[in-house]
Amino acid sequence: MNSLLLIAHPEPDSYNAQLRRIAMDVLARHGTVEVSDLYAQAFDPAERAAHYPRPLDRRRFDTQAEQRHACEQGSLPEDVAGELSRLRRADLLMLQFPLWWFGAPAMLKGWIDRVFVYGGMYSSRRRFDRGVCRGKRALLGVTVGSPAARCGADGIEGDTRVHLWPLLYSLRYVGFDVLEPLLLFGIHPPRADSDGAGQRRHLQQQADAYRRALEDLRQRPSIAFNAQDDWDASGCLRDGRRVLAPAWPHAAAPASGSTAA
Ligand SMILES: Cc1cc2nc3c(=O)[nH]c(=O)nc-3n(C[C@H](O)[C@H](O)[C@H](O)COP(=O)(O)O)c2cc1C
């Protein structure tokens, strides 16, 4: 198995960096591991005209048109082409990052914006189970500052799985078999005013569970997304089909008398 481990964290001595070392150690036992360390590479996450010196249209930057044109001409930006080559070689894409503002750090969002190029990574015909990355698996490893109890559907932080949904859906959109994410809650340094030893124990337990989950990756379920054929020409579910993977499976029924906004 060839793995591509993508890490989006600015600090080489962070807890995420510790997880990265665990992931490299475990994944290397199954085959090769390549690493995309977005901060260390100074990856530019902002898609813009300057990345395309030979554009289709110099007057107006149409992002998808320029991505497709560059793909067809073989003139994709060098950093994007490099990431795409790594992706092509990978059987498993693992994205490791901290939850920042209920989503991925901008660095990672920008990697998707720029590397999942229109015309190369997807088109209207090549999506979901027909996507370019079909046969490959994708896994998110996410550290969350808040404790698990606050991050469920009834928790004050909201459901972390829902916050990650745009990312999970994007991975499926380009064809990946998307595994249930690895979520590590309550990840913060021991605080002076709290039980430091208890927090250190918690961090160690979480790292141990992370290692075990990676060692048992074959057992990890994937999210049961709908197939392309489940949707009709207008993009809605065909009669008799149901949404296989709702973003919020535990959604409560609206209270009686309430109206949908
Ligand atoms: C910009 C920023 C935004 C954050 N947003 C959230 C958040 O939305 N929810 C949360 O539980 N923790 C949040 N945190 C806390 C981080 O998730 C937490 O510090 C990190 O996962 C710990 O891993 P690290 O030590 O490797 O950085 C945020 C931290 C930063 C710096």
Q: Quick one: CATH class?
A: Alpha Beta
Give the class from helix and strand content and strand pairing.
alpha/beta
Dominant shape: globular
Bound molecules: flavin mononucleotide
Number of helices: 7
Unreliable residue stretches = 252-261
Estimate the strand proportion: 5-15%
Helix % is: 25-40%
The SSE order reads: EHEHHEHEHHEEH
What key phrases describe this protein's structure?
261 residues, globular, disordered C terminus, 12% strand, alpha/beta
Short account of what is shown:
This protein is α/β, with parallel strands linked by helices and 261 residues long. It is built from 7 helices and 6 strands; from the N terminus they run E-H-E-H-H-E-H-E-H-H-E-E-H. It has helices at residues 15-28, 63-73, 78-89, 106-115, 160-163, 165-173, 196-215, and strands at 2-7, 32-37, 92-98, 137-143, 177-178, 182-184.
Describe this structure in words.
It is built from seven helices and six strands; from the N terminus they run E-H-E-H-H-E-H-E-H-H-E-E-H. The radius of gyration is 20 Å and the shape is globular. Strands 1, 2, 3, 4, 5 and 6 form a six-stranded parallel sheet that branches. It is an alpha/beta fold and 261 residues long. The chain has one domain (2-230): Rossmann fold, CATH 3.40.50.360. Flavin mononucleotide (FMN) is lined by residues 9, 14-16, 98-102, 143-146, 157, 187-188.
Element layout with pairings:
Blueprint: E1 2-7, H1 15-28, E2 32-37, H2 63-73, H3 78-89, E3 92-98, H4 106-115, E4 137-143, H5 160-163, H6 165-173, E5 177-178, E6 182-184, H7 196-215
Parallel strand pairs: 1-2, 1-3, 3-4, 4-5, 4-6
Bound molecules: flavin mononucleotide.
Residues 9, 14-16, 98-102, 143-146, 157, 187-188 line the site of flavin mononucleotide (FMN).
